[in-house]
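We were asked to recover a plausible sequence for a given structure. The inputs and outputs are reproduced exactly as logged, with field labels preserved.

PROBLEM: sequence recovery
POSITIONS: 269
GIVEN STRUCTURE:
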């Protein structure tokens, strides 16, 4: 929200944008949220798709495969769009979500009182328990990562995550993936090398100072925090913005979730 608020101030003069592309471009806002905001607040003709409507549409479409696949998501969005009335799309979208949550619920859909039961082949065929098809169990992958807190006087090195990165457009400490089978000494060498390559800076590394665990999509991540002092070299032009910032400035920056946690730990010391 903070990141989105900053973009609104910087790019839209503090006014919440009213066109779909601009709303979608705000950090943290996906297609569903953009459609929900603009249809409900401004009655724009935009579809929505979230948990309740996925279930409702999958049943109305008698979708007999995982609704989360790319093709099925596309079909569900198209279906949602095809249903939109000419006016009061916000009310219509909210009614669909209500229908999904109150009537077409996951375990015991109330088909007898459902206002669209005459359109629903899932109910006719008695397939309510099979549709929507459950997603295959996610195979989790363990990852070991290291974030380096590089200090220079009272400033710390931070970088903005680039397109396609996990925390795209948010700020973070330099972060690298480590091999889980290697020892801390080799990790330090690897981190030094990558830091140098990416930023042109060398530092005396110590760590891991502390570590935290978190999960993102199918990754279970152990994030080590390393310290870098005695910096030498000049910060070179990097692919994504990289800068020195005080802890106070970092507090005001839109940080990745774990970057924010690290910053809080640094502040409490
Ligand atoms: S008839 Fe039953 S399964 Fe079909 S949409 Fe209504 S509640 Fe859902």
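RECOVERED SEQUENCE:
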């Amino acid at each position: 929200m903070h990141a989105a608020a900053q973009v609104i101030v910087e790019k839209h003069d503090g006014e919440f944008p009213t066109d779909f592309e601009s709303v979608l471009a705000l950090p943290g806002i996906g297609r569903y949220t953009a459609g929900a905001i603009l249809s409900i607040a401004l009655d724009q003709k935009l579809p929505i798709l979230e948990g309740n409507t996925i279930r409702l549409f999958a049943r109305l479409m008698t979708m007999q495969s995982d609704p989360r696949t790319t093709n099925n998501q596309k079909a569900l969005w198209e279906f949602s769009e095809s249903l939109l009335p000419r006016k009061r799309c916000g009310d219509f979208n909210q009614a669909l979500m209500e229908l999904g949550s109150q009537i077409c619920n996951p375990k015991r859909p109330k088909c007898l009182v459902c206002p669209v039961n005459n359109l629903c082949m899932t109910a006719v065929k008695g397939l309510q328990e099979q549709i929507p098809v459950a997603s295959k169990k996610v195979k989790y992958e363990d990852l070991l990562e290291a974030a380096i807190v590089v200090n220079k006087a009272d400033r710390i090195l931070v970088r903005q995550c680039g397109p396609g990165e996990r925390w795209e457009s948010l700020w973070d400490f330099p972060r690298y993936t480590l091999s889980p089978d290697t020892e801390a000494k080799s990790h330090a060498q690897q981190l030094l090398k990558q830091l140098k390559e990416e930023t042109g800076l060398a530092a005396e590394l110590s760590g891991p100072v502390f570590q935290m665990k978190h999960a993102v999509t199918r990754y279970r991540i152990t994030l080590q925090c390393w310290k870098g002092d005695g910096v030498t070299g000049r910060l070179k032009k990097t692919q994504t913005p990289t800068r020195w910032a005080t802890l106070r400035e970092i507090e005001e920056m839109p940080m990745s979730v774990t970057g924010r946690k690290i910053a809080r730990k640094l502040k409490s010391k």
